[in-house]
Design the sequence.
């Protein structure tokens, strides 16, 4: 097998594509022949040594991937060789093969392409957990999605619309805003050339959004929180801008609003039954055409450095997926 090896987490430039021995699955594990792997922002942070999880080098990055079960270890009964699967294993995806615990593997239903499956679990699992579980989103409420043209942002538009919400999508260019409208957003804000507070006030009649979905962080957080509706829920998804904002705590007091943390990986580990139910609902919505990953770039696995460049430039709409033959 081949894999991208991180021996020193100082950035993507330190990764090397190497031939390594193909592992055998241990007890409770399966060996997956990887067909597609998607790039998520934590993958960049991990190879930079900036993520909350700091694996011991050398390691193979790549949290999310899909493929075919090639072999199963002792005690594995529910998965069989030849089955199409998707997994969010945390590591190991930027390779041709990986051994993963059966607990993090989901069989892929027929008609679910590997590229879509590789871009589905983390992005849509995170977003469903955020909007439906953590924010208790109700039909008729208004959701403001920041970074709305990115991987989780596009998922947030689709899931919020599937739940019956009104969606305001905020992005950094007219092209990204156009994509958001194609995905079903009711209104858009280009925050690179307009005052986001003024736009929110106009679009909500001064009331503000009931839920804010924020994977960006940085300098937008405070003005957006100042615009949130009474009893609003501000979902902290991540910090793609790089800066972790510090909000004055009088703001949630004055708004009767909540700052809600979203950590899907830990939720999936601690509450596997609830997570499985959420993924089942998402799979149903996928089959009904209500949700579908937006994939702007599909590159060969050997072009991982190029994929990281695209992500770092913040020009990607939707997801980047890497594929093996």
Sequence:
């Amino acid at each position: 097998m081949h894999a991208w090896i991180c021996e020193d987490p100082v950035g993507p430039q330190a990764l090397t594509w190497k031939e390594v021995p193909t592992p055998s699955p241990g007890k409770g594990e399966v060996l997956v022949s990887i067909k597609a792997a998607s790039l998520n922002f934590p993958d960049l942070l991990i190879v930079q040594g900036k993520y909350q999880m700091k694996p011991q080098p050398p390691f193979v990055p790549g949290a999310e991937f899909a493929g075919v079960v090639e072999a199963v270890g002792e005690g594995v009964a529910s998965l069989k060789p030849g089955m199409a699967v998707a997994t969010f294993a945390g590591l190991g995806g930027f390779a041709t093969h990986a051994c993963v615990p059966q607990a993090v593997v989901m069989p892929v239903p027929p008609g679910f392409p590997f590229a879509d499956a590789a871009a589905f679990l983390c992005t849509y699992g995170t977003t469903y957990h955020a909007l439906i579980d953590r924010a208790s989103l109700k039909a008729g409420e208004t959701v403001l999605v920041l970074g709305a043209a990115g991987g989780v942002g596009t998922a947030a538009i689709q899931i919020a619309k599937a739940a019956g919400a009104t969606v305001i999508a905020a992005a950094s260019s007219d092209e990204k805003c156009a994509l958001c409208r194609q995905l079903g957003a009711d209104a858009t804000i280009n925050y690179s050339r307009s005052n986001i507070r003024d736009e929110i006030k106009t679009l909500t009649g001064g009331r503000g959004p009931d839920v804010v979905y924020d994977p960006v962080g940085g300098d937008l957080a405070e003005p957006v929180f100042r615009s949130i509706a009474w009893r609003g829920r501000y979902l902290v998804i991540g910090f793609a801008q790089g800066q972790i904002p510090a909000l004055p705590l009088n703001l949630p007091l004055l708004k009767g609003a909540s700052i809600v943390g979203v950590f899907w990986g830990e939720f999936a580990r601690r509450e596997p039954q609830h997570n499985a139910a959420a993924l089942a609902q998402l799979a149903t919505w996928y089959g009904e055409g209500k949700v579908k990953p937006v994939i702007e770039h599909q590159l060969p696995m050997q072009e991982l450095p190029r994929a990281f460049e695209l992500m770092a430039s913040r020009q990607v709409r939707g997801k980047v997926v890497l594929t093996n033959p």
Remarks:
- The longest helix spans residues 272-287.
- The two ends are 13 Å apart (CA to CA).
